[in-house]
Amino acid sequence: MLIRSKPNWVLPESAATDETYFLNRRELCKSIAAGSILAAVTPIVGASPAFAAKSDDPSAGLYPANRNDAYTLDRDITPEKITTTYNNFYEFGSHKNIWRAAQKLNTRPWEVTIDGMVEKEQKVDIDTLLKAMPLEERLYRHRCVEAWAIAVPWTGFPMKALIDFAKPSGGAKYVVMETFHDKKTAPGQRQFWYPWPYLEAITIEEAANELSMIGTGAYGKPMPKQNGAPLRLVVPWKYGFKQIKSVVRFHFTANRPKSFWEQIQPREYGFWANVNPEVDHPRWSQATERLLGTGKRVPTLLYNGYAEQVAGLYANMKGQRIFY
User: What angle do CA 101, 274, 304 make, to 5 degrees?
Assistant: First the structure.
């Protein structure tokens, strides 16, 4: 008799890790007692080496990149230790404390495939790609669908630069991104009820928007593995589950795919996943969010505060479910 394990995405809201419990962990309390990290400091220093990207990363010399002051915040940057230890990365497990398991991810060698409706399909080494791209630092809000939020100094390059590099044809409407697939490295990928590998997509128009970014680093250093090294998507007006980590493929296509969470539970996780405080998740409110590291709950902003830059993308989409 085959006994099927209950998929672990079928959880009541009460089963989510409580922020208070997380913040009371002895190790984190010690770091908070040692002093807060100020948002104005760049690069941010003082984080334990256990939570930071290794200094022997081949791309370490590219950091810290110059900060683009067009992208600022109205809140303090979240302490690095919180951002790098409170993570969702289902490839390594469904709990928040996956940073240790994620260290098994080998980010060198790392090839990125660019294919589909492009001028020339190609594979490019990650370090070759990084040297070809205009790296900069931007301060962005990050909003999880679970109603917690952080503020991060991401380093990376505009996704428009990747589009220019790929040279898609005029018929390409979507950029489909795929993460690595390695069951030996990532125990979460042994869970057969998930449609591995993790797949996400955004439209060409969304990808070309000024806010869209391919993240390669954080806090003035190469991207930590648990945060999506060596490449991740950063689209700050969307919920975090759209922002795929550890990308190995960019596929340009005319057809809209079903993304990872859309395949698993389409009633709760849609394709667009734009932040809206007035549109609740089917199991909890999205009206407010918990700012990790502060104990504060604040009102959620439409498009996570980026409506001026992105609302026009959806002006002619009335009647479509664009907010979760």
Answer: 85
Which long-range contacts link 279-282 to residues 24+ away (Cβ below 8 Å)?
279/323, 279/324, 281/145, 281/147, 281/324
Instruction: Give the model confidence (pLDDT) of 83-117 as tens digits.
Output: 999 999 999 999 999 999 999 999 999 999 999 99
Give backbone dihedrals phi and psi of 187, rounded to 5 degrees, phi first. -60, -25
* Structural domains present in the chain: 18-314 (3.90.420.10)
Residue with tokens 């394709």: 271
**pTM, full prediction:** 0.85
Is the Cβ–Cβ distance between 231 and 244 less than 8 Å? Answer: no
Distances (CA, A) of 13 to 9, 10, 17, 145: 11, 10, 9, 12
Beta bridge partners of 217: 155, 222
**DSSP at 54:** P
Please report, as a single letter, which amino acid is at residue 318: K
254 is written with which tokens?
Answer: 């005319």
List pLDDT tens digits, range 198-253: 999 999 999 999 999 999 999 999 999 999 999 999 999 999 999 999 999 999 99
The partner residues of 138 in beta bridges, in order of sequence, read 154
